[in-house]
């Protein structure tokens, strides 16, 4: 279609229609192409508020296996929505190929346009571009895999009873965050392959397990017994993987379910690490796309006012101490950072040149149409996660704008200490602290499989390495019960500080675990 | 680029979460059950049928994960600094609550330790309530399986028996048919007659013309005679004109029930005992609403004399005096005879008493019941809200051995009502 600028604006009505969405979508797409946004094909779906809540409740996926916790989520979401505590999210977008964006029936045309720009072009290009997503998720097969998972879990429920499966899923969910590979690339999931290989794998796994737990030990020489082999040879960080492969008592179908939960956890792993980047990117793009469309004469003032109001709410950052304060708003922070990156490219200050010599002023003096700032933003979007993105790109200006300050809470001290604020001496420390705050490795306890007592009581020993002397929380024992349920034999957990002293320890016997 | 598609999913996949909701309710069955029981105790007869808020302590719902606890050292970045400079110290909140003011890994709900409250829909509420219950000796005519039939008019049909012939309808049809079939002939007849009259009127002129005219008249007359014959040949009444009154049979489920609440209000029945009885009535009422569209409630209270009263008076007016149970049973029988013929009504009786009765009266009660009332009612439930067994209890006991649809229990505490109800209406399959 031709994109003659300053043509007749798109109808500024509030009720949407399919044709109207198509029209808007065409213009948004053409605008996005001008900014070279590289996306998966888009699939827009109109859904009702109730379906939106459905999707919400099952962690944003269109299909998922059944579990009570999703029912709980649904009930909570529905309650808040009905009472008007919460507007439903603008959008749910699914990292799949084609990329599915949900448009809610109740939205006005302006909101639909906003959602299309935000989800179908912002998030979508992020999913396709960011290295974590490229490395960890296979957008082409996730829906198929979830269909497979749903059917498999349903089959297991039919065969082994809802309660048994539920208990198993509970245990797996408890370890979900510790069921991801952090450094290895998993094989791609595909429905056909999964199905074909499942049986083979089940048989093979069981055989391996049997081998490991051979009840009649092979006759061994004395010498060999002295050098009792450590198992596992090295500590393992992926607890679910270890359990799937080595838990002595699990049946093949149980291993498969552990695997399913593990795969789903792995799929969400990149999302957990790129909140600020992802939301910021999508927000940045809906803001820019819609504004460009306005400049081109496509949007009426009414539409502008409406989405801008919504945009403003989304990027609002309540200050600490405010009633609505609950930590940094990833939309606000991400949006501010990308916007500031663009500014640094176009209109750098001396401070920016000192901080970001690589790209400050890279778009200076170029014609506006060249969008010379694009490569910088594109690079920033592709090659980082929240932790490194903040570490690399958080500018003094954004720190000042947000009036960021860091507070140190030391158990030994009687008071909190303000360790850095938004001033010259504090910028670097502040940036480092914030970057750290988004590091999953420091947010979640570092727990690894340490050893298995192969010759004795078959107990499993986990080891927690304390970060900054932070102990484990009160739910540890409950989680260990779940581990015991999966493992089938006693489970120990030792929590060590950096000096290697055991500070806390737990032991759960199988009888407690059930 | 290919044309993008917008998919309308609104009609597809509704209630996707229903399976998850079921699993949730299943998991918290105990709590749900308890809440339902509480609700039943707290509500009054007619407003019982609605949803109920269930609240479950948050900690029971939590899904534990490994997370950091209090202690150690941490650094947290906050926005919105107004007054602090580096090195400032801020006092920690007292009482060991030190939550690091809005911590990054604080509780994900942000709502603290409130209970998780959600609403059980009316249907779910009733489902829990009536789970695995079925009416004992439920006479099948009462419900859908073998419905009653009612003959009902259903317009007219072209087939039927002579006694259902509808004359007016049939004649109207015949008339219409005759008009329709004869229309063209009559039109032609009319034209020919006009021509004939014109020819006859012009009777002067020469012989050749006169001859020609007479020939034409002859021709016309022949044609007219033919047409008249045709018109006459149209039958006055044809079998296809016949219309019969059509009657069809419609299944009428018996949807009405009457529930008699009989209660002793003599001096020995104190407030607490009345309260117990009330719960019992409520439960039966609720159960009936599940099965019948229309339910009449009749309240009979008695001491030495019985009277029919309103619900308000039934539960709240106080009376004193002795007890003659048979008076109530007599009245019950009279009301049934007068207003609730047992072939039209499903009759249920719930009787509550403390078992106290004038001792000469008890055998009479048993007699009235066995001979007059029990043959008419679907179910007779008796609860005694006192421990001591008096002669009424003994008399009833012999009755219950002979009649399956006569049930009796002792109820001493509000918490016992629900189990009693379940026992009274246990699934027949379970009993057998």
> What is the terminal separation of chain A in angstroms?
64 Å
Mean pLDDT of chain A: 86
- Helix proportion of residues of chain A, in percent? 40-55%
Cross-sheet strand order for the largest sheet of chain A = 6-7-8-9
Keywords:
heterodimer, A: 514 residues, alpha/beta, 4-stranded mixed sheet, 22 helices, B: 432 residues, Rossmann fold, 3 domains, 6-stranded mixed sheet, 13 helices, disordered C terminus
Descriptive overview:
Chain A is an alpha/beta fold and 514 residues long. Chain A has four domains: 148 residues, no CATH class; 116 residues, no CATH class; 124 residues, no CATH class; 69 residues, no CATH class. In chain A, the strands form three sheets. In chain A, strands 6-7-8-9 form a four-stranded mixed beta sheet. In chain A, strands 1-3-2 form a three-stranded mixed beta sheet. A two-stranded antiparallel ribbon of chain A has the order 4-5. About 1% of the residues of chain A have low confidence. Chain B is of the alpha/beta class and 432 residues long. Chain B folds into three domains: 59 residues, no CATH class; 84 residues; 179 residues, von Willebrand factor, type A domain (Rossmann fold), CATH 3.40.50. Chain B contains 13 helices and 13 strands. In chain B, the strands form three sheets. Chain B has a six-stranded mixed beta sheet, sandwiched between helices. In chain B, strands 2-5 form a two-stranded antiparallel ribbon. Chain B has a two-stranded antiparallel sheet with strand order 6-7. In chain B, helix 5 packs antiparallel against helix 6. Chain B is flat. The C terminus of chain B is likely disordered. The interface between A and B is large, with 98 and 65 residues.
């Amino acid at each position: 279609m031709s994109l003659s600028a300053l043509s007749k604006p798109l109808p500024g009505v509030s009720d949407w229609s399919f044709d109207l969405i198509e029209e808007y979508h065409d213009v948004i797409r053409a605008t996005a192409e001008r900014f070279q946004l590289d996306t998966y094909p888009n699939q827009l779906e109109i859904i009702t508020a109730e379906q939106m809540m459905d999707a919400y409740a099952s962690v944003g996926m269109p299909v998922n296996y059944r579990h009570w916790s999703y029912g709980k989520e649904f009930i909570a979401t529905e309650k808040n929505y009905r009472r008007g505590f919460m507007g439903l999210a603008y959008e749910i977008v699914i990292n799949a190929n084609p990329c599915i964006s949900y448009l809610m029936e109740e939205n006005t045309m302006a909101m639909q346009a906003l959602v299309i720009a935000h989800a179908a072009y912002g998030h979508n290009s992020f999913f396709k571009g960011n290295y974590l997503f490229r490395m960890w998720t296979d957008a082409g097969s996730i829906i198929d895999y979830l269909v497979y998972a749903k059917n498999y879990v349903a089959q297991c429920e039919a065969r082994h009873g809802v309660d048994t499966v539920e208990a198993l899923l509970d245990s797996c969910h408890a370890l979900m965050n510790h069921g991801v590979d952090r450094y290895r690339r998993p094989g791609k999931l595909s429905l056909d392959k999964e199905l074909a290989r499942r049986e083979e794998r089940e048989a093979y796994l069981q055989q391996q397990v049997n081998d490991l737990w051979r009840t009649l030990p092979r006759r061994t020489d004395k010498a060999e017994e002295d050098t009792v082999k450590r198992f596992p040879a090295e500590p393992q960080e992926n607890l679910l993987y270890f359990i799937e492969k080595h838990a002595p008592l699990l049946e093949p179908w149980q291993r498969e379910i552990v695997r399913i939960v593990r795969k789903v956890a792995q799929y969400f792993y990149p999302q957990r690490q790129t909140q600020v980047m992802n939301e910021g990117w999508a927000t940045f793009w809906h803001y820019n796309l819609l504004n460009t469309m306005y400049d081109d004469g496509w949007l009426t003032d009414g539409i502008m006012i409406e989405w801008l109001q919504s945009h403003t709410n989304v990027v609002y950052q309540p200050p600490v101490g405010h009633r609505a304060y609950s930590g940094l708003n990833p939309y606000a922070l991400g949006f501010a950072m990308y916007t500031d990156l663009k500014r640094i490219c176009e209109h750098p200050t001396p401070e920016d040149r000192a901080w970001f010599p690589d790209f400050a002023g890279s778009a200076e003096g170029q014609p506006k149409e060249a969008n010379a700032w694009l490569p910088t933003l594109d690079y920033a979007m592709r090659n980082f996660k929240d932790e490194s993105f903040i570490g690399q790109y958080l500018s003094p200006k954004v720190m000042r704008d947000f009036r960021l300050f860091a507070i140190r809470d030391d158990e030994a001290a009687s008071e909190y200490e303000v360790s850095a604020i938004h001033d010259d001496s504090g910028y670097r420390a502040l940036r480092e602290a914030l970057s750290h705050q988004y590091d999953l490795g420091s947010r979640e306890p570092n727990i690894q499989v340490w050893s298995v007592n192969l010759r004795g009581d078959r107990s499993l020993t986990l080891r927690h390495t304390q970060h900054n002397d932070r102990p484990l929380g009160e739910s540890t024992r409950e989680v260990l019960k779940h581990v015991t349920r999966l493992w089938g034999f006693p489970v120990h957990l030792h929590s060590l500080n950096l000096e290697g002293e055991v500070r806390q320890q737990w032991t759960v016997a199988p009888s407690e675990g059930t | 680029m290919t044309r993008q598609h917008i998919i309308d999913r609104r009609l597809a996949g509704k209630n996707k979460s229903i399976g998850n909701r079921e699993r949730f309710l299943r998991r918290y069955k105990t709590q749900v059950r308890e809440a339902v029981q509480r609700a039943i105790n707290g509500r009054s007869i007619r407003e019982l049928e609605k949803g109920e808020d269930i609240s479950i302590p948050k900690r029971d719902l939590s899904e534990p994960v490994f997370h950091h606890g209090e202690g150690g050292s941490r650094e947290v970045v906050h926005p919105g600094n107004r007054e602090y400079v580096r090195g400032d110290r801020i006092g920690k909140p007292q009482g060991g609550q030190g939550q690091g003011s809005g911590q990054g890994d604080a509780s994900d709900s942000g709502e603290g330790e409130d209970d998780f409250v959600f609403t059980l829909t009316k249907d779910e509420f009733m489902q829990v309530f009536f789970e695995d219950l079925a009416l004992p000796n439920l006479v099948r005519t009462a419900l859908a399986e073998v419905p009653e039939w009612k003959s009902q008019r259903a317009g007219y049909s072209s087939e039927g028996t002579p006694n259902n012939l509808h004359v007016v309808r049939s004649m109207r049809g015949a008339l219409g048919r005759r008009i329709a079939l004869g229309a063209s002939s009559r039109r032609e007849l009319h034209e020919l007659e006009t021509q004939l009259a014109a020819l006859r009127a012009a009777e002067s002129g020469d012989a050749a013309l006169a001859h020609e005219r007479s020939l034409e008249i002859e021709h016309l007359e022949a044609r007219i005679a033919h047409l008249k014959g045709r018109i006459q040949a149209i039958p006055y009444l044809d079998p296809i004109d016949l219309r019969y009154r059509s009657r069809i049979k419609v299944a009428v489920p018996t949807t009405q029930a009457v529930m008699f609440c009989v209660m002793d209000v003599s001096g020995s029945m104190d407030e607490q005992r009345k309260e117990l009885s009330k719960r019992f009535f409520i439960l039966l009422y609720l159960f009936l609403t599940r099965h019948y569209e229309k339910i009449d409630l009749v309240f009979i209270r008695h001491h030495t004399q019985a009277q029919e009263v309103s619900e308000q008076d039934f539960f709240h007016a106080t009376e004193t005096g002795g007890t003659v149970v048979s008076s109530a049973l007599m009245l019950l029988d009279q009301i049934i005879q007068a207003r609730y013929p047992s072939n039209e009504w499903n009759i249920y009786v719930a009787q509550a008493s403390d078992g106290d009765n004038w001792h000469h009266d008890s055998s009479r009660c048993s007699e009235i019941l066995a001979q007059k009332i029990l043959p008419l009612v679907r179910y007779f439930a008796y609860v005694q809200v006192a421990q001591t067994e008096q002669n009424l209890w003994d008399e009833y006991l012999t009755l219950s051995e002979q009649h399956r649809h006569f049930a009796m229990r002792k109820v001493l505490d509000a918490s016992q009502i629900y189990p009693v109800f379940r026992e009274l209406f246990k699934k027949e399959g379970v009993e057998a």
